[in-house]
Amino acid sequence: MRRAPRAALVCLLLLGGTARGGELEQLEQRLTERGKQTRTLSAEFVQTKKLRLFRTEVTTRGRLSYQAPDHLRWETLPPDASTLLVRGNRAELRIPGERPRVLDLRRDRAMATLVEQLLVWLGARSADRLTQWYRVELGRSPPKGYRLTLRPRSAAVRKRVSQVVVTLAGDVSLRRIELSHPGGDHSTITFPTVRRNQPLPKGIFK
User: Fold this and answer.
1) Beta-carbon count within 10 A of 66 CB
2) Is 136 a domain residue?
3) With 60 as the cut, is the pLDDT of residue 185 above it?
4) What confidence score (pLDDT) does residue 130 get?
5) Which CATH number belongs to the domain containing residue 112 in this structure?
6) Domains in the chain, number
7) Is 76 exposed, middle or buried (0-12, 13-18, 19+ CB in 10 A)?
8) Would residue 180 count as lying in a domain?
9) Domain containing 84: what range?
10) Which residue in 30, 35, 95 sits closest to 66, CA to CA?
């Protein structure tokens, strides 16, 4: 069961694509421009995972914080508490009652890519690499938002995720990520609020 925190991050496995060329390019440009203007981010999230084998549904809540250029905190709240801290090329996974697990993102490219993609969709990184990661079908989400259906190009990613659907608001703020996993499991992560360029608590990345 203690693999759940890393699995939760893998559920953040984010995105890229080839869709209706002009519209997708415009969306990438908007995401890139927002990333250039982002100094801090904070948000709450709710993750619901449907496990096909056990016919159960598990819901967890958490919060995230980001500070430019490369500090990220992804925290899952009790009862399945864990905290992932990213500071540059160093990541640390903390689980109550266990020794912290330290990761070098220069060597763990899979984890580094997951973190980078998350920051793209939160609007904190350039989106110019999207077409390298996924194939995308671009649609609309009422009233003025976007809905992107993404299928991974990488065989390594396809082992974990077969399809991702991302919903963005009209201002390209992240609202929802839906992940379909090989074997029939399904995960949904929603972001009710995303606060941008507001002060963060001191010491949050220590």
Assistant:
1) 26
2) yes
3) yes
4) 66
5) 2.50.20.10
6) 1
7) buried
8) yes
9) 4-192
10) 35
